[in-house]
Design brief:
Elements (H helix, E strand, L loop, with lengths): L1 H14 L5 E3 H6 L4 H9 L3 E5 L2 E4 L8 H9 L5 E2 L1 H7 L10 E5 L11 E5 L7 E4 L2 E4 L1 H11 L2 H13 L5 H7 L9 H10 L8 H14 L6 E6 L2 E7 L4 E6 L7 H16 L3 E6 H6 L1 H18 L2
Parallel strand pairs: 5-6, 11-12
Antiparallel strand pairs: 1-3, 2-3, 4-5, 7-8, 9-10, 10-11
Helix pairs in contact: 5-6, 6-7, 6-8, 6-9, 7-9
Length: 306
């Protein structure tokens, strides 16, 4: 009896990190025979969830147990995906009782209750670990959502990713560049084009992006990050008295920031400067639009010079 209790204690310890879920193969590796496993099922110490997948001690899946049971039942290489991955990345809500899984094969695998199975041969470099779970990467998750959900859900997922601090536009463009033809890519880029989502670009990278924008559109190079009228400005065309301020969309703007920017703009305009505000995300995603506005203001300034 003592040995039985020791083994049950060991089973519980091994299953605990996975929400109390354990596989028949793992039980065998702990030294249990098939007869011993079946005995524990009959006596209520193990509860069958899927074929070869058991819950230790009680029959109710809760918390992360649904996810682990689905992953273990789906075989090697299985990862959380679609809405289940979006929930794990804190992008969207998803019910725990329906788990979306993607497996790295096109071969058939038996469908199981409570598991939405997807198949893919492009998972190799498109997975990650989050909270200990194998999961599709942030970018792949958004792409899968865009391939299977209506536009409003995609918008919510993008907004959720930004709010959770996991959004990375460059990872999305690397995975599915515009026009690549992958399922979901067209809709995802359309949503991103209209989303006011912050970039992960640093200040120095943003400065380089502005300078590259000017070179590409034959706009004179500005001075960057210079003091003017007691304020630091992002881009200055001194002779044309034009200032371009690139506003960060990565963080929510506070009332103090808004008031400070208003004072800054008022002081610069009083000193005779034209001030153009552009979003950092537009510098990256809509450079031609930003360049056209800057060029128009420079042209207007030069026409007004005596």
């Amino acid at each position: 009896m003592r040995r039985e209790l020791d083994i049950d204690h060991l089973i519980a310890q091994v299953a605990a990190p996975r929400g109390g879920v354990i596989t028949r193969a793992r039980l065998r590796a702990l030294g249990l025979t098939d007869a011993a496993i079946d005995h524990r099922v009959r006596t209520g110490r193990l509860h069958l969830v899927h074929r070869g997948i058991y819950l230790v001690g009680h029959p109710h899946l809760c918390g992360h147990a649904h996810r682990w049971a689905a992953l273990l039942a789906s075989g090697p290489g299985a990862v959380l995906s679609h809405r289940s991955a979006a929930s794990l990345w804190d992008m969207l809500y998803a019910p725990a009782t329906v788990v979306h899984i993607t497996v790295p094969t096109q071969a058939g695998r038996k469908r199981r209750s409570g598991i939405r199975l997807h198949r893919s041969v492009t998972l190799t470099d498109e997975t990650d670990l989050r909270d200990g779970f194998p999961v599709t990467s942030m970018a792949r998750t958004l792409l899968d959502i865009a391939a299977t959900e209506p536009r409003r859900v995609v918008e919510q997922a993008v907004e959720g990713a930004d709010g959770a601090g996991v959004f990375d536009g460059r990872a999305i463009h690397a995975l599915a560049p515009r026009g690549c033809g992958r399922p979901g890519a067209k809709l995802l880029h359309s949503v991103l084009d209209h989303a006011f989502i912050g970039t992960t670009i640093t200040r120095s990278e943003l400065e380089e992006a502005m300078l590259a924008l000017c070179r590409a559109h034959q706009i004179p190079q500005p001075e960057c990050n210079v003091d003017l009228e007691g304020w630091e400005v992002d881009c200055l065309w001194r002779a044309d008295r034009l200032v371009v301020e690139v506003q960060s969309t990565k963080f929510h703007r506070t009332a103090q920031q808004v008031a400070r920017d208003a004072d800054k703009e008022a002081d610069l305009m009083e000193a005779g400067y034209v001030v153009l505000h552009v979003a950092d995300v537009h510098v990256i995603r809509r450079p031609a639009q930003v360049a056209a506005r800057v060029a128009a203001l420079l042209s207007r300034s030069r026409r007004s010079l005596p």
